[in-house]
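Notes, p. 3: input format for complexes.
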Amino acid sequence: MTHLNLKKRIFDFNLIFDRSGVLFIEDTKTLLVSDLHLGKSISMNKNGNLIPPYDNMETIINLKKMISYYKPNQVISLGDTFHENSSVQTMEKNFLNEIKCMTKKIKFVWIIGNHDNSLINSKKLGGNFLENLSQDNLFFTHIKTKNLNKKYFEFSGHYHPKTFLKINNSRYYYKCFVIGQNFCILPSFGYYTGGTDVKLSIFKEIKNQNIQLIILGKRKIIQQKYTL
Ligand SMILES: [Fe+2]
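Output follows (228 residues plus fe (ii) ion):
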């Protein structure tokens, strides 16, 4: 994973959109990440879908890389950090220790998502678990708020947005950020997390408006206007 990124000034904040799917708020040194879905392969294997169980390792390594690159004062994980409520319980001890190490060094806020709203053993992790958080005029939550107070700019996750780029007449899908007038939806960061095409009706329900996509291509980050 390289540190290909794109800087934009939005709502009077300098935001850095990283190719990995994290977002860094320069002004407050806050690193945002969403939908890690740690424990997804363990959960799938338990349910008879036999897939290689290496996603926890990869996702944690990638997060550590982003932390050492951006050196944040705080990390906010925007929900669905864990794939299911038993994911801390079933997590390999070494990965649990890696997370504990991170939360000892840096302030961590775990926003509660729909996958991890009754997380067992959450206290083992360190950090603070919150439904949502407002800092200055920034609001952090898992699922985009329908009628947000106009004084806030909101960051959320949940939808795992992706879109396609046409290359040589073929469609290649990439994860993307979705930016509206007062919101930004982050892509999923987890190694085994897929995406939801922004053209699907679920995004139309969010709001009928012009948005901007920041598409995380392999070698470059592309900005594109889009109407939901
Ligand atoms: Fe979610």
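The two ends are 30 Å apart (CA to CA).
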